Amino acid sequence: MSVAFVDLDHVKLRYGGNADAPLALDETSMKIDKGEFVAVVGPSGCGKSSLLKLVSGLMPPSEGNVIVNDREVSGPLKIVGMAFQNPTLLPWRTTLDNVLLPLEIVEPYRGRMRGERKAFEEKAMQLLAKVGLGGFERKFPWELSGGMQQRASLCRSLIHEPDLLMLDEPFGALDAFTREELWDILQGLWMERPFTVILVTHDLREAVYLADTIYVMSNRPGKILLRQQNPLPRPRDQETTFRQDFIDLVHALKNQIRVVRSTSSEGGQS
Amino acid sequence: MSRRFQYSPWVASIGLFVVWEILVRGLNVPSYVLPTPSASFVAAWVFRDAIWMHAVQTLLTTLGGFAIAVVFGVVLGSLVGSSRAIYSAANPILIGFNSVPKVALVPILVMWFGIGTVPAVLTAFLISFFPIVVNVATGLATLEPELRDVLRSLGASRLDVLLKVGFPRSLPFFFASLKVAVTLAFVGSVMSETVASNVGMGYLMMSASSKFNMPLVFAGLLVIAAMGVAMYGVFSAIELRSTRWATRGSPTA
């Protein structure tokens, strides 16, 4: 097997940076291949978001190494796209201009923005059309529904064709129908041009629907308890969610989480 | 929707003058205590040339001080808002300075620059920059951490974050502060003219009151108030045009 694209090797992360500060992440190791779709599930506050910040270089590890693309991460990576539960679109920019924002910052697009703006706009429009936002390019984010804003946010995180996509509970605030629609959209984009995804979620069905590999994390300090391969065939669709093997996998993960929660609440005060 | 309330400011203002007129006449208040608004308007007409000259002086003085306040306020507000270190260092000094009554500074300014226009411009500046600093700094400092992460994960520099997000995002705060600051600037310039000048509305009212010409004093007050309302309106209109996104396109605010 080739070298992992993302490699966390016995990583610890402390709050604040003092040697005796409480641990957010403890002894976390992960190996993620290029193009792999990974979901990280766990109880809220278990350090899932800290994990994303480590991998994207927004936070340095207190101990251990984070290696992405054969290089040790020492500062913000430029090959990353991010989307959060909150769409964080800029209200003074149209949807199209919001999607174009990364191209105004990331090289080599940044230098070519002036000359090739038309081409970039075309590319953004195509992406928006793919997620079902065709015709909404000139609308402002506050004129869109929550689900549409999240679609636009997804486009913004992918427009610069990042090798690594970080998703921090991106569908957490949406209603069930919209959420499952966006699962399909995300799966479609990923199957078209496979990029590496780390999806943080507390929705087990979401993890099983989307991911190749599912990591279960313990309560604070966060620790990887379980690595679960997901053998379900792709493309998965709404029918998949009613298959017995889908339900069994969700069920098994649910039991794991229950064990995690009960053991950690005993020692939770330490 | 807003058309229904289109005339309400006029009705309220004219109503105020009518009530004032009725009360003064009905209670027989002598003119040297409180003149009627009609007497004040007459005085404003009689002394229109002098008022025009002094009003222009005050307006230019105020706008001069206000312009310095905008430049200074934006620069200082950007520094304070984008760095926690500068924020904690500058905060007590700014609050302390803002607590000093600016009228107490006029004699100092007069010692340095003599009486007249310069201390009035500077007083207008000193009294009006504080809200601009606070609002620009607030707009920059309340940037959502997730948005910062999105940009930093793209490799954006601090300057990128400031230009792409910080400044546009703090524009509504900035314009809100301009409306407050421009009216404060009038307070500053007129105050300084009252204490130490021989030109401007402050001086005009001072000399009128020493001649017991109370209608002219009140005419002066009304002219200053009118200039303040007009300037507030100008900046309100600019705010509405440039930050439509912040009011979500609604016609109020």
- The first-to-last residue Cα distance of chain A is 40 Å
Shape category of chain B: globular
Low-confidence stretches of chain A: 266-270
Count, helices of chain B: 10
Order of helices and strands of chain B: HHHHHHHHHH
**Main sheet of chain B?**
none
Give a quick account of the main beta sheet of chain A: strands, pairing sense, barrel closure: 6 strands, mixed
| Proper CATH architecture of the largest domain in chain A | 3-Layer(aba) Sandwich
Flag low-confidence runs of chain B. Answer: none
Going by CATH, the architecture of chain B would be: Orthogonal Bundle
**Assigned CATH superfamily of chain B:** MetI-like
Please identify the top-level CATH class of chain B. Mainly Alpha
Secondary structure category of chain A: alpha/beta
The chain pair with the largest interface is:
A-B, 27 and 21 residues
Protein name (chain B): ABC transporter permease
Organism (chain B): Telmatospirillum siberiense
GO cellular component, one term (chain B): plasma membrane
Membrane topology (chain B): Multi-pass membrane protein
